[in-house]
Amino acid sequence: MDKETIHYIITYFSNLMTNREKLALKSHMFTYKTSDNPEMRKILTKRNWISSDPEITSLLQNDYDEFELKIVQRIMAETPEKVFFNNCSQCNKLARTPYAKQCRFCGYSWHNLVAKFKIDSVFQLTNRSFYMLGEIVEGEINPYQLMDLTVLGLHKKIKIESIELGDKPNNGKPWNGIGLGTNELTEEDKLYLKQQSFLHPIINIITTQPI
Questions:
Q1: Rg of the chain over CA atoms, in angstroms?
Q2: Distance between CA atoms of 92 and 206, rounded to whole angstroms?
Q3: Is 74 strand, coil or helix?
Q4: Which three-class secondary structure state does DSSP give residue 139?
């Protein structure tokens, strides 16, 4: 695991640390800050801000980076579902914080993100729209929002012109799900999306208005 990911988890998910780990982290921080001030270190030690407890100091007996790594490994082994990795949907790299809405690496922005949609398949209804069938992973989807197809390799943001719910034919078979319809794709685009749909990709749904 790289240092950037370790720092991300330690910084933003410290609530998942044990009390001993938190005390050891606090002790290390104040030990470092008082490295050139012995008197202050004595004061903080008396206040137990710098721990002398063997159970705490034993956690820091090796390299500090190793201490952080062990914390993160434990967290990811015990409660991985509680850690949110805010990865860019364009380049898949980790954003600076869990709350960031723009990638510091590729510059992709998701400030107007309102939902995420998983594509299971695509189909064309005769004399009607081209539909992407799937499910909402998070958020709420409404007509006239935009499907951002950048993650699929199509640099297009197409309007959701209709939403179909419930049982509809898909290659002659009934399905239960949500279909997002559009008329803004070329035949070449449609063929490409049919090929990509087998991977069940997740696309961003965005609004044209800042949120």
A1: 25
A2: 18
A3: helix
A4: strand
| Mean pLDDT in order along the chain per 10 residues (211 residues) | 94 92 90 88 85 86 91 95 86 90 88 91 87 92 92 87 73 70 94 90 83 51
User: Pick from 119, 118, 160, 122: which is nearest to 141 by CA?
Assistant: 160
Extract the runs of DSSP E, i.e. beta strands, from the chain: 113-124, 130-139, 146-148, 157-159, 162-170, 173-182, 202-206
What order of strands is seen across the sheet that includes strand 157-159?
157-159, 146-148, 202-206, 113-124, 130-139, 173-182, 162-170
Query: Exposure string (b/e) for 140-160, b if CB count within 10 Å is 16 or more?
Result: ebeeebbbbbebbebeebbeb
Name the 3-class secondary structure at 86: coil
How far apart are alpha carbons 100 and 73 in whole angstroms? 24
Residue type, 135: E
Q: Output the pLDDT for position 209.
A: 65
Amino acid at 108: Y
Verdict on whether the full-model pTM lies above 0.85? no
